[in-house]
Design goal:
The longest helix has 25 residues. Helix content is 29%, strand content 29%. It folds into three domains: 72 residues; 83 residues, TruD, catalytic domain (Pseudouridine synthase); 145 residues, TruD, insertion domain (Pseudouridine synthase, 2-Layer Sandwich). The chain has 336 residues and is of the alpha+beta class. Keywords: Isomerase, Lyase, tRNA processing. GO terms for molecular function: lyase activity; RNA binding; tRNA pseudouridine(13) synthase activity.
Length: 336
């Protein structure tokens, strides 16, 4: 889907010329027990997707793939570091490092009492190299600085929707009864794509209205660094708290139940839902419940360095579920 960039910056470049140009390091703050039924592994992978690596670890450990845990999916065309867990009660899988396929490296291993669950990470650090850059370098630098100070729209990235938006089209066909996904991961992928699409549509409308980072009447607001939210009942200090990045406006993650928004915010979300009734109905039929996601996210530890006339190094941290490609899309036009 199309997203409205925050800055109309005449700046272009290329990403992922090599996998090393796009590095992702998982940030996790879970103390290791040193004992327990699970063997946790810190893995670096190059040009490999997370699910495939999980399958390789299951093969090496002689366990079912469902007994391998990881916190989130990482890019394939990149060099990424993340944790996996193996459920191996009463034993330790030996010599894992020498059995791993090419491009997959074991960095650390520890024992833990619990399986690593999806979403159990604080965020990701991105280290990018932007090549063949051209255009208004000063405007690009200013856009990066402003997002570091004021935040950026928290769109779901295009990878959530599949190549050419195929995941959305397949979700529509499934909801219309034209076919049924055969496997649970495929079903989850289509549900996630449909839900993310609706969120992006609401956020995009707010960006176009220039109020995505402001509280409008009836907004649901989320605390910075938390998933907790509350409905704006007209408190006088709400605009100041939004401006100070203490709280953020949210948009719907669609599912069963009534929207918690009111007034102006409710009217917008209702209008978007009516435009995509089939997607909303499909999500509700499959048991998803109404939830919220912040429309604004604050990149942290942002560092931009110009390495040559046409090359930049860019480093920043985003919370789990936010996308480096969205950061780039808001400050220039970058293609792989």
């Amino acid at each position: 889907m199309h997203i409205t960039p925050l800055f109309e910056t005449a700046f272009q470049g290329k990403i992922r010329k090599t996998p090393e140009d796009f590095q992702v390091d998982e940030i996790m703050n879970i103390p290791m027990d040193g004992e327990g039924e699970h063997q946790w592994l810190k893995i670096q992978k190059r040009e490999a997707n997370t699910d495939w690596v999980a399958g390789q670890l299951a093969r090496i450990a002689g366990i079912q793939k469902r007994d391998v845990g990881y916190a989130g999916l990482k890019d394939r065309n990149a060099v990424t570091t993340q944790w996996f867990s193996l459920h191996v009660p009463g034993r330790t899988v030996e010599d894992i490092a020498v059995q791993l396929p090419e491009g997959v490296v074991l960095l650390e291993e520890h024992r833990h009492s619990k399986k690593l669950r999806r979403g159990a990470l604080e965020g990701n650090q991105f280290t990018l190299v932007l090549r063949e850059c051209a255009g208004d370098a000063e405007a690009f630098q200013q856009a990066v600085n402003k997002m570091a100070e004021q935040g950026m729209p928290n769109y779901f990235g295009s990878q959530r929707f599949g190549h050419g938006g195929n995941n959305i089209e397949n979700a529509k066909k499934w909801f219309a009864g034209e076919f049924k996904p055969k496997k649970r991961p495929q079903k989850s992928m289509y549900l996630s794509a449909a839900r993310s699409y609706l969120f992006n549509e609401i956020l995009n409308a707010r960006v176009q209205a220039a109020n995505w980072n402001q509280a409008v009447s009836g907004d649901v607001l989320q605390f910075e660094g938390s998933h907790s939210w509350f409905v704006d009942e007209g408190e006088a200090d709400i605009p100041t708290r939004v401006d100070s990045l203490d709280i953020h406006p949210t948009a719907a993650l669609w599912g069963r139940g009534a929207l918690p928004t009111k007034n102006e915010a409710l009217a917008l979300e209702t209008r978007i839902a009516e435009q995509h009734e089939a997607l909303c109905d499909g999500l509700e039929r499959n048991g998803l419940q109404q939830d919220r996601r912040a429309m604004r996210v604050l990149p942290k530890n942002v560092v931009l360095q110009r390495q040559s006339d046409q090359e930049y190094a860019l480093k920043f941290i985003l919370p789990a579920g936010s996308y480096a490609t969205v950061f780039l899309a808001n400050c220039g036009e970058f293609v792989a």
